[in-house]
Amino acid sequence: MTLNPSYFQGDLDLLERIEKATLRLVVQAIYDFREGVREVFSLERQEAETDAVDYIGEDITREALDRLGTSIIPVRLAGNIDYKKARYVFQPDFSVGQALFVDSKVEEVAGAKTATIQTAQTSMAIRQVRSGMVVDQPGGLPVIIQRPERSLLSTTIFVKYSYQQEPHLELRGVSVLCLPNGMLQAKYNPSADDTFWLAGRNAPSRGEPFRVRISLPRLKGKARWRVQHIDITPSRLNTPFVWDE
What pTM value is reported for the model? Predict the structure, then answer.
């Protein structure tokens, strides 16, 4: 049977199983393509301007996921996210329609422990203390995408590429993280004091849109499996990946 995503409101453990399985899919895609990740980054980065580096991440993630492949539901998804796919998630006892959103972030290694996102890229409310004020900013992505044909569970994953400039340009590692669906708000971000969010790099005084950063260590502290790291330095390329549970 195909579950309506609203079913997960009453079974949050099952929702997390779906998110974990989806994260495994993306991690596997990036890991299998790890040699290509280094090659594409090196070739494209030599020719790209500094402000174009994010587009290299988009290309790498899209190629990795396209190579692995997945089921397809013919529903068009909108949103400011690199890779969008309506698909089925198959489990032994059921299937569920999913709106899979995967966004790429590229930054120097100094910023490897955070990922900056827009509110449109999360179905969670952003609860944090910012400049001494409590913030409760709604996410812009629905927990369930409603379409005439069917309902789809929103699942958002970020792929963070970290590189160094000196002594030579090199991609150092990739972190893949699954942001909880908004149905899991009470577990992962119940209040401004219990949060994995950090202030984003935007200036409200200049009218810049609200942004926020995910603290990878804080999110991992909530659930270790939600943040996986792939070491792609040359000496580690042939090292088997170990899932961090």
Answer: 0.93
